[in-house]
Amino acid sequence: QLVESGGAFVEPGKFLRLTCQTSGLSLGDYAIGWFRQAQGKEREAIAYTSTSVGTIFYSDSVKGRFTISSDSYSQVYLQMNDLQVGDTATYFCAASRRYLKSASWARGELYNYWGRGTQVTVSS
To answer: How far apart are CA 7 and CA 61, in angstroms?
Structure first.
């Protein structure tokens, strides 16, 4: 029900746009979060949007460089600018039936559906 795309190998300072294609669920009923997991590290929540409530959150690690948006229908995007080596990871989108708040949006266990991920590698 969730398929990520747009991952690639890029040099530091470049940009990418990831897409989370949803099917079988409505963005009016589900909030979408973007997570990433680097090799050997824990999963990290990086962005969240609830289109029906108009809520957006970012982690401190990506705030100011990444932007989450949606078409309000079936696709959620993650625009990633000024990519750094530390952004290398597998990126996942996930859907939550709950409208999460600032204290809870980063908790992966509150999401009901997950995509399989797309790889982003940043290297010179």
So the answer is: 19
Question: What are the φ/ψ torsions at residue 120 (nearest 5 degrees)?
Answer: -120, 125
How many residues in total does the chain contain?
Answer: 124
The set of residues, in sequence order, having a beta carbon less than 8 Å from that of 16 and lying 6+ positions away, is 6, 7, 8, 10, 80, 83, 120
DSSP for residue 28: T
Distance from CA of residue 4 to its chain's centroid? 9
Three-state SS for 2-25 is EEEECCCEECCCCCEEEEEEECCC
Tell me: the pLDDT tens digits for 24-64?
Answer: 998 989 999 999 999 999 999 999 999 888 899 999 999 99
Helix (H, G, I), strand (E, B) or coil at 122: strand
Record the tokens describing residue 92, joined without a space.
């996942």
Q: Which residues pair with 50 in a beta bridge?
A: 55
Task: List the one residue out of 20, 17, 24, 14 whose CA is nearest residue 33.
Answer: 20
